Please model this.
Amino acid sequence: MKSILSCLSVCLVLVTGVYAGDVVTEENITVEVSSGDPVEIFTINGDITVEEWNSDQVEVIYTITCSSEEQLEFITVDCNTSGGIICEVDYDESWGGSQNGGVDFTLKIPSNIDLEIELASVNGNVSIDGGNGEALLEVVNGNIEAKGFSGELAVHCVNGNIDISESPGIRIAELVNGNIECVINALEDDLELAAVNGSITLNLGIDAEVEIETISGTIEIEDIFNAYITDDIVGSSSEFGDGEFSIEISTVSGDIIIDN
Model:
């Protein structure tokens, strides 16, 4: 799966935000998919919301919102439906910084087909409820929520909050500014949770080899885990547990809380 991280700075300069508009257009696309097919959505200003349904098809509804018909002409949504579906939002070169407009996506994906999923927004929220296969979720400015995803999951956020639950295949959740909340009652592999400026709260319902480190922050661990916290000149750290998989948790400036 490709990544938008290399172009994020360009996108941020291009468009600065999504605002309520008077002109709205909506498009509905439905495509039959097979195991391993890609489902990729790339938007600049807008939310991406995904839920599962009992079908072998993917339904994509995208809504373009602008403040005028003229501005609407500068936004294009290109969707490739040759084996899965890949949609990407493009703004014309003449689009100005004083203009506004965004594209929101709502998807329904099969509940029983493994897909290669990538969802990315520069300014907007990304949410997925259910689904199977492999998923990469990326946001620059906005929140990410993943619930009930079955398969390998990676989450990256620059400015916003991350909320993960009922997703045992989570491999990594990292952000620069914001907070991470993660509920783990099962794991299928090792997990890394990392924040630069922000707190991490882990609700841990299984045994795992847990390693914790913060440079400028506090560590709070519920007594049930029998963990010892070490403080020194470079920060605080702790280790506990001996489960099958490891969990590495780190912050540069932010608190770490482990509860049950």
Residues 22-93+100-178 form one domain. The chain has two helices and 23 strands. Residues 41 and 119 are 5 Å apart (CA to CA). Helices lie at 8-14, 69-72.
